[in-house]
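Hi R.,

Quick one: here's the ABC transporter permease sequence you asked about.
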Amino acid sequence: MTVLKTSLRNFAAHKGRMVLSAIAVLLSVAFVCGTLVFTDTMNSTFDKLFSATSADVTVSPKGAKDEQEQPKSGKPASLPAGTLDKVKQAEGVKAAEGVVSSMSVTVVDKDDKNMGSSTGAPTIAGNWTSNDRRSMQITSGHAPRGPTEIMVDADTADKHGLKLGDELRTIAATGDRTAKISGIATFEVTNPGAAIVYFDTGTAQKFLLGDSGKFTNVAVTAEGGVPDKELKRNVSGALGAGNFTYETQQEAADANQQEVGSFLDVMKYAMLGFAGIAFLVGIFLIVNTFSMLVAQRTREIGLMRALGSSRKQVNRSVLFEALLLGVLGSVLGVGAGVGLAVGLMELMGSMGMNLSTSELTVKPFTPVLGLVLGIVVTVLAAYLPARRAGKVSPMAALRDAGTPADGRAGAVRAVLGLLLTGGGLAALYAASQADKAASGSMMLGLGVLLSLLGFVVIGPLLAGVVVRVLSVVVLRMFGSVGRLAERNALRNPRRTGATGAALMIGLALVACLSVVGSSMVASATEELDKSVGADYIIQSDTGQPITPAAAEKMRKTPSLEHVSDYKLVDAELRTADGRKTDAKDVTAASPTYAEDLRVETVAGTLSDAYGANAMSVNEDFAKKYKLGLGDKLTVDFKDGRTGQIAVRAITTSDTSLESGALFMSLATAERYVPKDRMPLNQMMFGKAKEGQEEAAYAALKAELKPYPQYKVRDQADFKQNLQDQVGQMLNMVYGLLALAIIVAILGVVNTLALSVVERTREIGLMRAIGLSRRQLRRMIRLESVVIALFGALLGLGLGMGWGATAQKLLALEGLKVLEIPWPTIIMVFFGSAVVGLVAALVPAFRAGRMNVLNAIATE
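And here's the predicted structure, written out as tokens:
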């Protein structure tokens, strides 16, 4: 009971200093709980959507699930004509309805503005069926009744201000179709952001599938009392298993959820990983807090020991304070996590993905995990300070000696830190020399872990060296105040090392990712300059193939010397001895593509590969299957015949552009694949006439204005787009790392605040002998700046080492340029100084307000 009272009294006495530690715990727990609530809510939302939109049994073409959202033909796989009639005759079928659905569409308004989602959710076109009525209802107008009418979902209508009577143009592989909005349908379950349009069944079949007798699937409803599994057996018996896939409602919902769940799992574990980094940083904060509190209470602890308290009781007293801190921070963190999840849902809503807060899902596991993590991490972080507190002897009551120093422990720490750092550097070197990315990645991970642990352990030893060097550059210009700040930072190297290490972790990751991102962009840019001869690249950012109408507009563009087609044709390849290769497709392109992409060859020339019945393979493929010039491959075209194609060129694999591609001419592919089954262009390339580059660029953009899904980019645009994509990814990661950096800043604030309290008498004496308040505040700010720069220097140096090693592994995949983003590194370094200044504002202000006489009288 005495231990409990003592802990409560001490906790209350230092409540102001515990707040920052509690905030660190709160932020970390909130991030974990918020991530889990957000992803669980998304899973729950999709579960309800898929359950509501799945029929009792769904019949689909075999292999349709393996087809990408954007089929190469531009038209989704369809069932044979007559399938619907056969399904209706199966036993136990109450009703069966043909469904037409395609994601290979773009919907635009009269100003050619894309009506699709901006979040990456698909645009879906289909026919309005009874199955749709299970999840939607028409809230305005009526369903489409002919080819000139179209119905849209309410979310899309609200987002783009659409109303009844407005005209929309739908772009598909079969052409364009303009129709007026006849109705608006509202989801009764949450729509995660897809834009949906409906046609009448006949129009949907002819427009989306190019055949009035086919459907993409059949939705089957069971008679009363007939289980879904039994209905599935009956329907499969009526149709046979050869060309069809059958799914019950549960199986269809599970399959759809699995596809979405894999993406959500990646997002969830990535966010939890950043939460783990924040927890790691928070450990340094808590260790420092309790170490300093124990040091300040040395006399008190000594008196407790003199009055009969055992080591175990002192230890328990400190741990109980940590328990209180963990419970408080974790409970608040769980609540904040729910708020964070709601905020993320609102953010997604503003971006077009509609997630209703009424669907908020808080599983019992989530708050339990948050509480356990927060409390366990806090108590474990306080264990070492508690153990040191237990070692305080009763004689410490007679002197103000601080917690006992352990020289042997310091030596062991230094040796262990050197060993870990040396092991980490050795692993990083081994990774940089690896000849395979898989083995190199393992060594890179080991090197990152060991070097990080080594720098954390050896931090106090590094502090003594690095802080002195920084002081020469930063502090000495401030005269005696700067020297005092240097002495304060060096007074307790362990404390400085721990505070700097917290900042080091986040900045090391920032530097590493910056180096990797910059190297990727620089490598790709160099490769583009070296290999791409085309002036313009035309493609869809969502992977949609280029429709024949859009392709024809490009070919008719004035000022162009040539336009090259580029198609991916599904095919399986076998060697002369019948061995099946791992190739799944070949690239069929115009002969002019050899000018548009200057691919180096190790044997033959690429132009030879565009000859009759010829093709090229890449160097790795040739080595793996022992192929040489003149050897023939048996090519089984999925939508055509089988042919014997001769290898006329072997391209280098030492590039990041088309390193694995197998090339042949369009003419060769057309010999084996019927014209109506030939895939659409995946992208196209243009070459301007000499001196007419600007005119051709403007003309291409004007010609493709009615097709906003396609982007016309010259080489500068393409490089900028690549840079923007990498930049967006890095900004997202930096945003997640900001949590760890905020916790690290709290650590600096807490360390300084407790340090000021610890040096109260010293500060009073310095003030008494002439140190002004302004000089005192400057001294504390400079101390904070040098600690922040110490952490930044270690973190940036470590991160650049990690990034350079990662680039060596990327070089195995063709990304050979190492680019150090010096502007970013310098900005982060000086930004760390600003962080140090900001962190010191409150502690410096409080120190400046101290009463000199009261400070001198402090014990």
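The longest strand covers residues 560-574.

Cheers,
M.
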